[in-house]
Specification:
heterotrimer, A mainly alpha, B mainly alpha, C mainly alpha, A: mainly alpha, 3 helices, 71% helix, 0% strand, C: mainly alpha, Four Helix Bundle (Hemerythrin (Met), subunit A), 6 helices, globular
Chain lengths: 116, 677, 172
């Protein structure tokens, strides 16, 4: 729709991304950390689509990639991000399940076997 | 006679060394020691004959010209050429005759002296090698070849002093000789380098780039040094440093008395007749440098005179017959350097020749006495040996009179030449005359201590060895391959027997030479013109006529001998007896070299060890190990400090990433883009 | 602010955006994992709506189906299986990381916003054709211009399947 500035979408996406980052740093449950990661990925998706819609391509003159294609490219990116996110969540939650079988609680601060 | 025979002169002793060294023990079993001994003497005698022929060829010329016999090239790089070349000139031929002649006699003597040794062939191998090295020293036409011979005789001296190596005292003496010599060698090498630097620095062309060969170097060196007299003094002093090491001048004389630990023939050949005269040979070869430097000549004179006096006094405190002769050698070498300092280099060589005869005679005679007295060397246990050892006695008396300077015998003429030149010339300034008069005094002292030696050994009122305890009879073991104590010491019932013919024959020959050589050589300045046919280039004709010097010499010799006879005619005085606490203080101090040897040992040997330990503990442990271990531990500490970031906590990592991101974006925002567009 | 009219679309967008922001904060803020998950679900729905306002209908539907329908269900299953609901499981100690993290987050937000947004304030009109997001166009692009990444992603999904099955087995 017209009338909404691009900057607004970008600001929203930025806010969601930062919230996700802060969430990863703050929370101690791996599940919630995962969810914050999903939040971040969604923020990125939003940004991609916003740019696809508003056709903001600074390299206009002399680029092989015509402006018209940037709309489709943005959506393609979003599809792939979603696919990757799905695969990642499946495997990641599988790992969390495997760890939970060994220990009773899941506190990410106590998973420091890589300490060194 | 073709001058190429000079190669044979050198190679024959080397061949002897190889035969003795490689096949010696097996030959000893097959043909016996006597034949092996003859095999050892033969190369030296053959070299002597060849030397005679070459000398005859030289002498037949009106003006003996030096002939250079050239071998192949040795070092030839970067404009410095040092070939193998020998020189046949009067100086080298004189030394060849002395070395091979006296050497052959000593080889003959050793076949009897060392007859009981198990390591018979090893001794002769070393002895032949020594003769070869000495021949290289005198026959080489350039200084590096002289240096090879120099080092070679140093090595053989070390090997021969430590011949009975199972006794630690002998090996220590050998080490001392070698190491003190090294100090002199260092000085000599610096002199060699300086010569090349001076000649090439003055841009004087040298024939065929042979910067260190005598014939090519000396004219160029003369030109260079005339323009730069300070360098002449420097080179002269460095060369003299080397000579002082080899010829046992103060302060590098300390090895010679200890070198008496070797067998007596070694002392006779090396430390009396040949090796110790290498310094004088060097000064004769390089006399032009000393001619151009009165300062250095004065130093040489002074050192020579001081050494002569110092050693003569010490000789009075010695009771070991060989040690007396050792200090006598040091003293006589001082005389030779007085001559060289005064500019009369030929007189130094004259004394070398006569000294070779009578000192070798004296040493061999002492060896005969020691051999006859069951290897007892302390003169306090001798006495009245004249009737038991007649030939030894007779020849040793000739030697004693010769060294004392009794007129008519050879020592008199050579000493006259030295003292006369020293007093009459002014090349070395006042010091030359002072040295000459000091030398006269030392001549008197020489006569006195040699008289002391003769009286204590051959005369006296009683046969002092009878006072020693009588040992019970025990079987001698065959072999005698342990230390030279030979299992049985001197006892009270010992009967001294005259030595075999192969030992007294060389004594007789040397006695004849000691008696007659001076007279023959002195006729009409014959020796001077033989060595220096055209005189000395810088100093011209030297004077050596001093009014009344002959009379003073007669008085000095006479007084000395008289004093010696009178003091010791009654045998051993109580004040010099076996109880050393009764000795006069000066005598005990003299026996101790006035503390000089102890000073040298503490200063350099102990001091060197302390420096080494200090350096090791500081540099090695603290600096080097500290640096190495420090870098290791530093790395480890740094790693440990860095390790703290790896907590394994995911949240921390995430926060660090966030922090990094903030920094990155902030950098771009504020620094690259200057706070946004 | 450059001149733009307060239109209905803008107000609608502001409402949706506010909801999205609130739910995002809710994901992070709630102690209870289930409530975080539900906030996230709400966030995804709102995002899908925003995608629709952007004329990217295919993406919006895919968002609902994949994210909320599959991923969040998976999350909720895991939360249920692991019994994480109880808030006392993770009692936070007074952790400096919280304060530091939030500060850093806010700083980062301001920095990036300052960097990026001022230059884009003028862009208010969309440039893409209005049907760019229809399934027809997306499908055509997916199977012609971007077919290689499409095949690669299919391999990725296969690996994901194999991996998650392996991880879930009780015995290897």
């Amino acid at each position: 729709m017209s009338g909404v500035p691009l900057a607004a979408y970008l600001a929203l996406g930025l806010f969601m991304f930062m919230t996700g980052v802060v969430g990863v740093v703050i929370r101690r449950s791996p599940i919630v950390i995962f969810m914050c990661i999903e939040l971040m990925l969604n923020a990125v998706n939003l940004t991609f689509l916003a740019f696809a819609r508003y056709q903001f391509s600074p390299m206009v003159a002399g680029n092989s990639f015509r402006e018209g294609q940037s709309a489709m490219a943005g959506q393609m990116m979003v599809i792939f991000v979603m696919a990757v996110a799905a695969a990642e969540v499946a495997v990641g939650l599988g790992i969390i399940m495997a760890i939970f079988r060994l220990r009773e609680n899941i506190d990410i601060d106590e998973m420091n076997l890589l300490k060194g | 006679m073709d001058n190429n025979a000079v190669w044979l002169i050198i190679l024959l002793p080397i061949l002897g060394f190889l035969i003795q060294g490689l096949a010696g023990p097996s030959l000893q079993r097959k043909i016996g020691k006597k034949a092996l001994g003859v095999l050892a003497v033969l190369p030296i005698a053959a070299s002597f004959v060849l030397g005679l022929m070459l000398t005859q060829g030289l002498a037949s010329q009106e003006h003996a010209e030096a002939v250079i016999v050239s071998g192949g090239s040795w070092i030839n790089i970067m404009g410095l050429n040092i070939p193998f070349e020998w020189v046949v000139d009067p100086l080298s031929m004189t030394m060849v005759l002395i070395i091979t002649g006296v050497g052959a006699l000593i080889h003959l003597y050793s076949t009897a002296y060392m007859a009981e040794e198990k390591d018979f062939s090893r001794f002769f191998a070393y002895l032949n090698l020594f003769v070869a090295a000495m021949l290289v020293l005198v026959l080489g036409n350039n200084l590096p070849l002289l240096f090879i011979g120099w080092e070679g005789v140093g090595l053989c001296s070390y090997l021969l002093i430590g011949f009975w190596y199972t006794d630690t005292a002998n090996t220590k003496a050998a080490n001392k000789a070698f190491i003190v010599n090294r100090v002199g060698d260092w000085s000599l090498m610096l002199g060699l380098f300086l010569i090349v630097v001076v000649i090439s620095g003055a841009n004087i062309p040298v024939e065929d780039n042979r910067y260190l060969s005598y014939d090519a170097m000396l004219p160029a060196l003369t030109t260079a040094l005339k323009a730069n007299p300070a360098m002449a003094t420097a080179i002269a002093l460095l060369l003299f440093g080397g000579a002082a090491g080899k010829s046992a001048q103060f302060p590098l004389y300390v090895w010679l008395p200890d070198a008496m630990a070797g067998p007596t023939p070694v002392s006779a050949l090396i430390h009396a007749a040949t090796m110790v005269t290498s310094g004088v040979v060097l000064l004769n070869r390089m006399n032009i440098v000393f001619q151009l430097s009165p300062t250095a000549s004065a130093v040489v004179c002074a050192v020579g005179a001081f050494t002569a006096l110092f050693a003569a006094i010490i000789a009075f405190g010695q009771t070991d017959i060989k040690k007396v002769l050792a200090y006598s050698t040091v003293s006589q070498l001082g005389f030779m350097f007085i001559a060289c300092g005064a500019g009369a280099y030929w007189a130094g060589m004259f004394h070398v020749t006569t000294h070779a005869f009578f000192k070798a005679l004296l040493f061999l005679g002492a060896g005969a006495v020691i051999h006859a007295m069951s290897h007892e060397q302390d003169m306090r246990h001798y006495g009245k040996l004249a009737k038991y050892l007649p030939i030894t006695f007779g020849t040793m008396m000739v030697g004693t009179l010769a060294i004392a300077g009794v007129p008519g015998l050879s020592g008199f003429y050579s000493k006259e030449a030295i003292l006369g030149s020293a007093i009459a010339n002014s090349h070395a300034g006042q010091l030359s005359a002072i040295s000459g008069w000091v030398g006269l005094g030392v001549a008197a002292l020489t006569a006195m201590y040699m008289g002391r030696l003769a009286m204590l050994t051959f005369f006296g009122k009683e046969e002092r060895w009878r006072k020693l305890p009588v040992a019970e009879h025990h079987d001698h073991e065959e072999g005698h391959d342990d230390d030279h104590g030979h299992g049985h010491a001197l006892t009270g019932d010992h009967k001294p027997k005259e030595v075999p013919v192969s030992m007294w024959l060389p004594l007789v020959v040397l006695a004849v030479l000691s008696a007659g050589a001076g007279l023959i050589l002195n006729e009409g300045k014959r020796f001077e013109h033989w060595l220096y046919p055209s005189g000395l280039s810088q100093l011209g004709e030297l004077k050596h006529e001093v009014p009344n010097l002959e009379i003073y010499s007669y008085i000095a010799a006479g007084l000395g001998l008289l004093a010696g006879v009178l003091v010791y005619i009654g045998g051993l005085p109580a004040k010099e007896g076996l109880d050393e606490t009764k000795w006069a203080r000066w005598r005990s101090a003299a026996a101790n070299q006035f503390g000089f040897d102890a000073l040298m040992t503490n200063l350099f040997a102990e001091g060197g060890r302390d420096v080494a330990i200090g350096t090791s503990s500081f540099l090695e442990d603290q600096v080097i190990d500290g640096a190495v271990e420090g870098s290791a531990s530093g790395t480890r500490n740094f790693g440990g400090w860095l390790q703290q970031i790896q907590t394994g906590a995911v949240r921390l990592y995430a926060m660090l990433m966030l922090l990094g991101g903030v920094g990155f974006v902030g950098y771009f925002l504020f620094i690259v883009n200057r706070g946004g567009k | 602010m450059a001149g733009f009219a307060i239109t209905g679309e803008l107000l609608f967008f502001v409402a949706l955006a506010g909801l999205a922001m609130l739910s995002a904060v809710g994901v992070v803020a709630f102690n209870n994992a289930v409530r975080s998950a539900l906030c996230l679900v709400l966030n995804f729905f709102v995002l899908a709506a925003i995608y629709f306002t952007l004329n990217a209908e295919m993406m919006g539907i895919t968002q609902v189906v994949v994210y909320t329908g599959a991923i969040m269900v998976l999350f909720l299953f895991v939360i249920m299986l692991l019994n994480i609901g109880a808030p006392q499981l993770l009692s936070d100690k007074k952790d400096p990381k919280t304060a530091v993290g939030m500060t850093l987050g806010m700083v980062m937000f301001t920095l990036v916003a300052l960097q990026v947004l001022p230059g884009l304030m003028s862009k208010t009109q969309p440039g893409a054709p209005n049907d760019y997001g229809s399934p027809v166009n997306v499908g055509r692009a997916l199977f012609t211009g971007f077919v290689i990444p499409f095949e690669a992603v299919s391999i990725l999904l296969l690996i994901g399947i194999v991996g998650s099955i392996l991880l879930a087995k009780r015995r290897f």
